[in-house]
Write a structure and sequence with these properties.
The complex is a heterodimer. Chain A contains ten helices and 20 strands. Chain A is α+β, with helices and mostly antiparallel strands. In chain A, strands 6-7-8-3-9-10 form a six-stranded mixed beta sheet, sandwiched between helices. By secondary structure, chain B is mostly helical. In chain B, α1 packs across α13, α3 packs across α10 and α6 crosses α8. Classes of the chains: A alpha+beta, B mainly alpha. Chains A and B meet through β6 and α5 of A and α9 and α10 of B.
């Protein structure tokens, strides 16, 4: 996909200079607070992911930006202009739904052309203009030869691309995608999200997409907004969010994680039998603490290389494709941790169930206090 | 010799169920209908043509099929409206209204006919307000139309309603995001989706109206050449022991209804061309 150099938006990027500002937006559904005083700025031309588990309010936020839902409190600004009460029709947003929402009685061509044909007569391009525009978009999504098909004759990935072309046809100021790859199978999903990234690099329309798949967000987005329980947990580039999680929730949500329970005192943490320096908690005195380590940051060694290595018993060894997951029982604390090793490291260690090894966290983040996730 | 030519399907009982279906349809539909044709065959071609093209008979075709088509059309429009209101809005008494829609199904046709005739006659509840404006309903062809609309209403509502209920709200949201106004969303997106079920409802309402006898004879006035329906003419022939004449007219009705239903079916197939 994406080999050809088609740049239909090349000289038209002017109109798509658009930032979105969300100012203390709240939304309740009955007793349930879907959004609780959320503020966020989406810079112009960026591709931002709203990442969170289901029920975290990410879709509600997206629908409020689109105008499909009205906030109970707060404001939405498009380019600094208040848009809270602007009708969906006038917001000039392109919205892509998880289940495509294509018009099934229309051909691919008519679906893509729809937004152009419903324009008021004086703004509407002529028949030839519409045809050119639609074919240009079909070229962009590489479905030019399927213009006469009906949605029911397309695969899921093709349908979603048609839905995207349909949204782009009206040259929206903002592109909003609600779990756009959620209904697709794993391989198509990866293909399509890379294609979306390339497309965005070409057309630079301010885009927000909702996902619960951390891998998708990390791979595609310029910025990630992690949401939980109607609030924003952390916001930043994929690197920031992954490497410096601000809260235990973010740590836990992005990738496989192991917990070591213990206490922290004057910059020294004792967690699950190991002892390590925790300079950011230098001022904390005798507080409960939890250490978070990603599975791939646990090193398994035959001999302890320093004081942070703890003895552990190998319980299970699973080989999952290129990775080997080792379940370890920490001898001192009785906690179970999972280490993720690459195939060659595992081959060198030749681990057997029941033997004792040493587990050493390469990178560990300590959160003091009684965190619940 | 191995005779296992037949394919085994996952679902059991294909043979018995198909056999039963054919047997049942023959018993209930095909045999009586073929008896109709058989009886008609007692007439010579000339007699047959003379019977079915007599001016009074032709006038009755016009009244019956004309009124039935018109009634089905009226029901198509207002049936969609009723279904729309029942599906889209919440209001007190909604369940009651929903149940009321089925009433024409259940009411004995004679009761419906007598009631309509009373209400729409010169002194009736509705008739007394129409009469001063020169609109006579009872005992005119208009009365036939009213009765046909009454008995045909549930068909359109009940065929359109489930489709409307299953329409995804996202479809309308997608249309709105693309800049379509309410009317464009309805005419370009919703209506084409409803059309197949609407045509089914139309066909059923039409078929019911053509075959209706009980309620119409009470309100129609039954004036030859003006407000006499074909089913009544058939009964009249039967009462005169003209069995061959009655079946001749009946077979013409049968053919005409079949053609109309076939046309509607083809239209329906065309309107569903996208669902493969």
């Amino acid at each position: 996909m994406g080999g050809r150099k088609t740049r239909p938006y090349n000289n038209r990027v002017k109109g798509t200079d658009m930032s979105i500002e969300i100012v203390s937006v709240s939304k309740n559904f009955g007793q349930f607070a879907a959004l609780d005083n959320v503020s966020l700025t989406v810079p112009s031309g960026e591709l931002v992911a709203l990442l969170g588990p289901s029920g975290s309010g990410k879709t509600t936020l997206l629908r409020i930006i689109a105008g499909l839902e009205t906030p109970d409190g707060g404001k939405i600004l498009f380019n600094g202009e208040e848009a809270t009460d602007r009708h969906v029709r006038e917001r000039q947003v392109g919205f892509v739904f998880q289940h495509y929402a294509l018009f099934r009685h229309m051909t691919v061509f008519d679906n893509v052309a729809f937004g152009l044909t419903v324009k008021p007569r004086k703004e509407r391009p002529g028949k030839a203009g519409i045809r050119d525009k639609v074919h240009e978009l079909l070229r962009l999504i590489q479905l030019e030869n399927l213009a006469d098909r009906y949605p029911s004759q397309l695969s899921g990935g093709q349908r979603q691309r048609v839905a995207l072309a349909r949204a782009l046809a009206v040259e929206p100021q903002v592109l909003l995608l609600d779990e756009p790859f959620g209904a697709l199978d794993a391989k198509v999903r990866v293909e399509l999200r890379r294609w979306l990234r390339r497309l965005h690099d070409e057309i630079h329309v301010t885009s927000v997409f909702v996902t619960h798949d951390q891998e998708e967000a990390l791979e595609v987005a310029d910025r990630i907004v992690v949401m939980n329980g109607g609030r924003i947990e952390q916001e930043g580039t994929p690197g920031e969010v992954y490497d410096r999680p601000a809260t235990p929730f973010v740590f836990n949500f992005l990738g496989n994680v192991n917990l070591f329970h213990g206490r922290v005192h004057n910059g020294l943490a004792r967690l699950g039998g190991m002892e390590l320096a925790s300079p950011e908690h230098a001022a904390t005195t005798d507080s409960p603490a939890v250490g978070y380590v990603r599975s791939h940051d646990i090193e398994v060694e035959r001999l302890p290389s320093d004081s942070s290595a703890v003895a552990a018993e190998v319980r299970h060894v699973h080989t999952v494709g290129p990775l080997v997951r080792v379940e370890l029982l920490l001898s001192e604390s009785g906690e179970t941790v999972e280490a993720e090793l690459s195939r060659d490291v595992a081959d060198r260690l030749r681990l057997k169930t029941g033997e004792t090894v040493f587990a050493r966290p390469r990178k560990l983040k300590v959160f003091a206090g009684d965190y619940q996730i | 010799m191995n005779l296992s030519l037949k394919k085994h399907s996952v679902l059991p009982g294909f043979g018995p169920t198909l056999g039963y279906t054919v047997f049942y349809l023959s018993l209930i539909v095909l045999i009586p209908l073929s008896a109709l044709i058989f009886k008609t065959a007692g007439l010579t071609w000339g007699e047959f043509v003379a019977t079915v093209t007599a001016p009074r008979v032709v006038a009755s075709y016009r009244v019956t099929f004309g009124a039935a088509l018109l009634a089905a059309a009226v029901n198509a429009v207002f049936g969609v409206l009723v279904a729309w209101v029942l599906v889209r809005y919440r209001f007190p008494g909604k369940r009651l209204f929903d149940a009321l829609v089925d009433l024409p199904f259940a009411l004995p046709t004679a009761v419906a006919g007598i009631t309509l005739a009373t209400v729409y006659s010169g002194g009736g509840w509705i008739g007394r307000y129409l009469e001063p404006h020169g609109i006579k309903v009872a005992y005119t062809p208009l009365g036939i139309l009213v009765a046909m609309v009454f008995i045909g209403l549930p068909f359109v509502v009940r065929t359109v309603q489930p489709v409307l209920e299953e329409l995804d709200a996202e479809i309308e949201e997608a249309a709105a995001c693309l800049g379509a106004n309410r009317w464009q969303t309805f005419s370009r997106v919703l209506f084409p989706t409803l059309l197949p079920s609407l045509l089914t409802g139309f066909a059923l309402a039409f078929a019911r109206a053509v075959g209706e006898y009980g309620s119409i004879i009470f309100i129609a006035g039954n004036m030859p050449m003006v407000s006499e329906i074909t089913p009544l003419l058939i009964i009249t022939k039967l009462e005169q022991y003209d069995f061959a004449g009655a079946t001749a007219i009946a077979s013409v009705m049968l053919l005409a209804s079949f053609i109309v239903l076939l046309t509607v079916n083809l239209l329906q197939k065309w309107s569903r061309r996208f669902a493969e």
